[in-house]
Amino acid sequence: IYAQVANTENKRSLGLSYTPKIEENAGMLFIFPDMQARNFWMRDMYFDLDIIWLDENKQVVGFFENVPKESYNHNHPEQSKIYHSPDNTKYVLEVNDGTMQRLKIKVGDKLDFKY
Questions:
Q1: What is the pTM of this model?
Q2: d(CA 55, CA 47)
Q3: What pLDDT is recorded for position 90?
């Protein structure tokens, strides 16, 4: 997977919002300075995603598959669905929906990446 890196507060805040689409083997890797619980939502997204939560060892600690872009409520943002990490995370990988199933990624897998 070729991922854009979101390693600043501004890049992490924007994420993939306003991106029309990404290629099949593309995504965004969010890098945080510390380990803690993370919350994501689908603000201004144009496509559905898989969200993969990773610890400091790059091990998958949880995920959400097929997260719908419609889970963000533009008229009432406070009513939008929030996706919570199941554990403390250092990295979050967003990819096209269906990628987890296609690549058979599961909790406990260790992902190898450099940034």
A1: 0.95
A2: 26
A3: 98
